[in-house]
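Re-run with default settings, no changes from the original entry. Doing this only to confirm the output is reproducible before filing.
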Amino acid sequence: MGTITAVVNLTLDGVMQAPGRADEDTRNGFTGGWAHPYADPVQGRVMGEHMAAQAAGESALLLGRRTYQDFYQVWPNRTDNPYTEVLNKTEKLVASRTLTEPLPWQNSTLLSGDAVTAVREVFAERPGSSLVVLGSGELLRSLMRAGMIDEYLLSIHPLTLGSGQRLFDGVDVGALRLVESVTTTTGVLIATYRPAAEESL
């Protein structure tokens, strides 16, 4: 099977909901935008390097419906950052039971039906391929329950919120092994984890 990397912004108490904007995801009355004050050049450099490596390795993005629609509203027409061109050019696989084709953003393909089954079919057609999931909490938790996440790239921010959608709600992925970490000037820990092999526990 191919590999899947989860790229997620988190608070110390595990909240991943709406890091970018106040109105990004207002479910249950949530107000987002909590990650913005912690942005710095170190984080920009590290995440830019990861995006460049993914583009060079021809990784596809795997997104849930909500994240895809939000990204489409924000990124395609922005010109003030290095990410727009990469996101526009990158293949985007969108897991959704409600969207229909054609999808509006260039290089987008719909994965309909059960997400886990659809992703397994992608890997069956493209052995050894790699996928990167940005945000997409509900999709991620489905893949995590199926044991399909090979790497977690977590930007852990030094604050707690006490409420909001959490990455690991209702999911037990077992032990993880830290393979790389960088601390930004604002205290964000960018940590890369992989599932720990049972024999190493």
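The first helix runs from residue 41 to 56. The two ends are 24 Å apart (CA to CA).
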